[in-house]
Amino acid sequence: MNLTLKIWRQKNANDKGKMVDYPISGIEPDMSFLEMLDVLNEELINKGEEPVAFDHDCREGICGMCSLYINGEAHGPDRGVTTCQLHMRMFNDGDTIYIEPFRAAAFPVVKDLVVDRSSFDRIQHAGGFVSVNTSGNTIDANTIPVNKHDADDAFDAATCIGCGACVASCKNSSAMLFVGAKVSQFALLPQGQVEATDRVMNMVKQMDEEGFGNCTNTGACEVECPKGISLENIARMNREYLKASFKG
Amino acid sequence: MALDSKIPKGPLADKWTNHKNNINLVNPANKRLIDVIVVGTGLAGGSAAATLAELGYNVKAFCFQDSPRRAHSIAAQGGINAAKNYQGDGDSDYRLFYDTVKGGDYRSREANVYRLAEVSANIIDQCVAQGVPFAREYGGLLDNRSFGGVLVSRTFYAKGQTGQQLLLGAYSAMNRQIGRGKIKMYNRHEMLDVVVVDGKARGIIARNLVTGEIERHSAHAVVLGTGGYGNVFFLSTNAMGSNVTAAWKAHKRGAYFANPCYTQIHPTCIPVSGDHQSKLTLMSESLRNDGRIWVPKHMEDVKAIREGKLKPTEIAEENRDYYLERRYPAFGNLVPRDVASRAAKERCDAGYGVNKTGEAVYLDFASAIQRYGKEQAHVKGLNENDAALVKELGQEVIKNKYGNLFQMYEKIVDQNPYETPMMIYPAVHYTMGGIWVDYNLMTTVPGLYAIGEANFSDHGANRLGASALMQGLADGYFVLPYTIGDYLSNDIRTGPISTESPEFEEAEKNVRNRIESLINNNGTHSVDYFHKKLGKIMWNKVGMSRNAKGLSEAIEEIAALREEFWKDVKVPGEAEEFNEELAKAGRVADFLELGELFAKDALQRNESCGGHYREESVEESGEQKGEAKRDDENFKYVAAWEYKGEPKDAVLHKENLVFENIELKQRSYK
User: pTM of the full predicted structure?
Assistant: First the structure.
């Protein structure tokens, strides 16, 4: 396959940045999108140019490190995948592909296609945990039964990989799908109940402070989420928040 | 220096309890005066950082990723073992201990493995208390499944994403401590040296990967939970960033490196598709619970499949060779990973591989779909003879168990594994070798600890499934937090460690010089060019099957490649910026040294053991004819290497393994 890549280049957080064209050839359909970028980078290095910086690590679709806004979609045109699981067979010979970083005020660009998503971490520091001692002297696991339906729903919420595609896809750069998933996991389990009120209040407060926008129920986040995290989680977070506000 | 494993005296089952009762403690008020550095935030590092902070120590944690949550433990799929015996199928601490020692081909320490089995049940309690959503049965109790190499169901799981859920548990425990200010987190930082002052580890030199700044960090002790080094093969199931740098730097500062040649080759990975491939993807071993492994019995079928004239589903049952079930009737498809990997290689080497490169076998779910479908139809009172219905119901069960794995497979290979068998082939997965540690998990450098995959571990020459997560969390939550106190109790009056000492000065200078020589080298080849070359040597001559001639050649070839690297590598960009190529160059430089030691270790170990098949060491007669032959008389030891400059000059120290509770037997899964 022969392709034209239009890639966002930005030297650092303070640089203005611009789109640059890169023609590329010899791309095979069974390459992953990131392997295609590897090929480009190898060419750039051999020509004495700087390779394109992009985030990636496990390349198995689970670490959440890879990002990229491809042809106007987070993680590109395929559904239910991260960029590392996107394959070139999704594209046609001769295509022009636009590759940009995830754009949101709360995700500042570090370099080229790399953004800083530490705002997600800070939301979790504010309450994304159960305050249990890590001493191992807890009660036997089977003394906390959880009905299968709740356990499965909690698991589904917990599969969020924190990649930020929801934020990148949202016209308001809202992080509510991410935060909703985190709140839901604990809201659905008996372990998380004791501090449920503080958790949702603190996490939402931090989310707002980080500069994420609000949810207007467009649903783009759910469509673009590589792990199929459902909007239900936002509804659940809103209920939890409302409940907590009354308790205040 | 003689290796002192510090294994406590007394009966096996009491060793850990007695040890805990007799080691020194640090009182809570004094813990506030002590700093600990934890490098790596996976299951081992993350759980250790959280627990040490919980105990009251000041923790500084480092990871090269943008968040601790991305550590490669997150990719572990199948599950975590624990001797809970919830299923009432006869499990116990002793059986978990026994399976692990036997599964590791009797090359691990009895005392460590028993302790691992002993604390395994606490791990599950701890994780459930944290809100880790393990799979449940309808009654609300925890579900279990079985894994390769064992005859009980002791594996706890969260679909095919157990590692993710356990890591998020450890990460949330860390978040709590970060929120309290007890852990100071350094994301996107890479450790580039250990600082040793008066013979004790007192800090690290780290590079901020965003700004390129070189930083000094001091502490009273340093803990490495930095994972394994399988990426020395270039292609492996490890994350792209997984590397040996921290462990190798520790080795260069005096930590012995143990059993570097022990690498697990995982039997169920997606086969290599071409030269551009950047990494290999694992398919959880749990798939072998329901998948049957086969290749065609007849060569003409193999040829027809490769030419695309025949589909695997068109090959009749009697023309399939279910070679694991044939060779190992007792364990069948659930033989341990090393046995399954070698058997796949044997069939493919004999010409029966089913993809275009001849390096793939089938993993087939058709009979499981039938079996589950019939069961579901029966449960629901539906027609068990309706083939379409049975298939649909059966596929639903399979989807519930392994859905994400099937989806992942389909995205990568572009084939639907519900309809046609998966293709799999062995790939480099987990390294059992690593930094040598004593019973307290301390390396040969006082104050420097290694946990999880970074140490030479409890797995011997082969790791059973679902035991890596167990070891990572056992070390981090339950072992290190006790044993490190024994050492730190001498530091309550030390006060803060200065970073202005000549030792810090020297270490920082070393790091800077190395970075400068990489960035100013102006060679002609990229870092990956060298890494791929190294990987080829490693896989061809130091991989699943080895011989003395190949290993000797590999040692020379790697040394030559290393020389070429330093002369000819090209690293673009600058040192004081976000520069992924520069970070990679440093890691590959270390792999080029480790690779040689790895081959040297493999050469001296003239026995077949675990996944390490020495062509010179094969059973020549009897029931086990053709199987790998272990040599207990000459090789019942841990090979610990002392750094002396070039890898070729490394000095071998042997820790003899003593087995008082287990009789060493031939491993038979027949």
Answer: 0.96
